[in-house]
Every structure is written in C-alpha cells, then in structure tokens.
C-alpha cells in the first residue's frame, strides 16, 4: 500500500516549497467547498492512496457481485429441477388418471354390450327392428 509513502517532508512549508499548491473543490453531494494546501508531491501520493482504496473497493464489489451471480445461478438450477420434477409428476399423474377413466369407459361399454347380447338382439338386429 502507498500509505507509508505519505509522510510529508518536515522542511516542506508554503514558504520553502516550490511545489506548494492550494486546491479548492466542491463536493458533489453536499455542495460544500473544500480547500487543501499542501506540497503537490504529498497531494499526489494522497490521491494515489485514495485511488488504490477505490480500486480495492471496486474489486471487492465486483467479486461479491460475481459470487452473488453464481449463487443465483445455483438457485435457478435447483428451481428448474424442481419444476421439471413437478411437471413430470403432474404429467404421470394425469396420464394415470386418464388411463383409469379410459378403463372405466371400456368396462361400461362392455357391460352395455353384454346387456344387449343377453336380450338376444345385436346392434344390427336392433336397427332392423327400428326401420323394418
């Protein structure tokens, strides 16, 4: 880190230093005006330290975002598998229910056919009686 380099020169004062500057700026959020008087070299080192800290913070935020993204992806895969499983279960249950209904219809159809046959009339004979 650069903080060890920030020890100002003890000889560096406004009168003795040829690189002495006074910086004035206004904070964007607070609109408060700030002033700083210092040796330009010390100011540059201070600026470098602030940039380094920002860079580290940005890197940490980027890594955290990447980790969160990976977690979201894992959870999305879990949810997708759950929905696939539910979909398959629903499809299988519906197929079984429809087969059960089909079996009942077939059984009722057989009973109706057997009732007609017990009476001695086939479907063809019933038609002949109706139109004959």
Tell me what you see in this structure:
- The protein has 132 residues and is mostly helical.
- It has a domain at 3-94.
- The protein contains 2 helices and 2 strands; from the N terminus they run ββαα.
- It has a two-stranded antiparallel sheet.
- Strand 1 and strand 2 form a beta hairpin.
- The longest helix has 79 residues, at 40-118.
- The chain is rod-shaped.
- 1% of the residues are buried.
- The model has no long low-confidence stretch (mean pLDDT 80).
Write the layout of secondary structure elements.
Elements: E1 20-26, E2 33-39, H1 40-118, H2 123-131
Antiparallel strand pairs: 1-2
Features:
132 residues, two-stranded antiparallel ribbon, 2 helices, rod-shaped, mainly alpha, single chain
Work out the helix count: 2
Helix content: 55-70%
Oligomer: single chain
Low-pLDDT runs of 5+ residues are none
Which structural class best describes the helix and strand composition?
A: mainly alpha
Q: Could you describe the largest sheet, including whether it forms a barrel?
A: 2 strands, antiparallel
Order of helices and strands: EEHH
Terminal Cα separation, in Å?
110 Å
Q: What is the β-strand count?
A: 2
- Biggest sheet strand order reads 1-2
- Beta strand %: 5-15%
Radius of gyration: 44 Å
Name the overall outline. Answer: rod-shaped
Mean pLDDT: 80
């Amino acid at each position: 880190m650069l903080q060890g380099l920030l020890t100002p020169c003890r000889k560096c004062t406004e009168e003795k230093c040829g690189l002495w500057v006074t910086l004035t700026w206004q904070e964007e959020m607070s609109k408060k005006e700030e002033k700083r008087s210092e040796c330009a070299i010390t100011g540059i080192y201070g600026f470098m330290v602030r940039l380094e800290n920002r860079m580290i913070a940005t890197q940490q935020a980027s890594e955290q975002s990447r980790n969160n993204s990976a977690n979201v992806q894992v959870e999305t895969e879990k949810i997708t598998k759950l929905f696939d499983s539910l979909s398959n279960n629903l499809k299988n249950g519906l197929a079984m229910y429809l087969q059960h209904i089909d079996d009942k219809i077939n059984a009722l159809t057989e009973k109706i056919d057997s009732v007609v046959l017990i009476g001695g009339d086939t479907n063809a004979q019933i038609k002949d009686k109706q139109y004959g």
